[in-house]
Design a protein that fits this description.
Elements (H helix, E strand, L loop, with lengths): L33 H39 L5 H13 L6 H12 L10 H15 L11 H8 L5
Helix pairs in contact: 1-2, 1-4, 1-5, 2-3, 3-4, 4-5
Length: about 160
């Protein structure tokens, strides 16, 4: 059969064993700890998915709280508005709102470049702090929560 114009005939390739499985096993079986590695891979995959979902949900809630507070108190300074939103989110722990906003400012306004504190920074900090306190002890996250927050919270507020 003649080759079509602009197309070449593909040469068959040898199958490559999956990196999740034990690479020393040529038949791709799950011997020698392959099941454990596969389980760990899926655990991390689902953890990252759960982190993104949690971040999306919390960011949407915080943005709605911000818009509600801004409508009710349009003349309030941005920092006071941020503290009010954080206080509502924290509920019984609302006395920590000023501390959370201060820590967000320390975390995001000096490095890597100096900039004004924005609501996006407060949301990112608050969600990260909540997530780290929520559930069992965590050493960190598998997701860049800031990217998820940036898709939801506009930079200008």
């Amino acid at each position: 059969m003649p080759a079509e114009r602009g197309r070449t005939r593909a040469t068959p390739r040898k199958p490559v064993p999956c990196g999740i499985l034990n690479p020393s096993v040529s038949d791709g079986s799950l011997e020698d700890g392959g099941v454990a590695r596969l389980t760990e891979h899926f655990r991390r995959l689902f953890a990252a998915h759960a982190e993104r979902r949690y971040t999306q949900h919390a960011a949407v809630q915080l943005l709605e709280l911000y818009r509600q507070q801004h409508r009710e108190h349009p003349d309030v300074s941005p920092r006071a508005l941020y503290e009010s939103v954080v206080a509502q989110r924290l509920g019984p722990d609302a006395t920590r709102a000023a501390e959370v906003v201060r820590r967000a400012e320390e975390s995001f306004t000096d490095w890597p470049v100096e900039r004004e504190l924005g609501f996006r920074h407060v949301v990112h900090y608050l969600i990260f702090e909540e997530y780290m306190r929520w559930g069992r002890a965590r050493a960190g996250t598998k997701t860049n929560m800031g990217v998820v927050v940036a898709h939801i919270v506009p930079e200008e507020i």
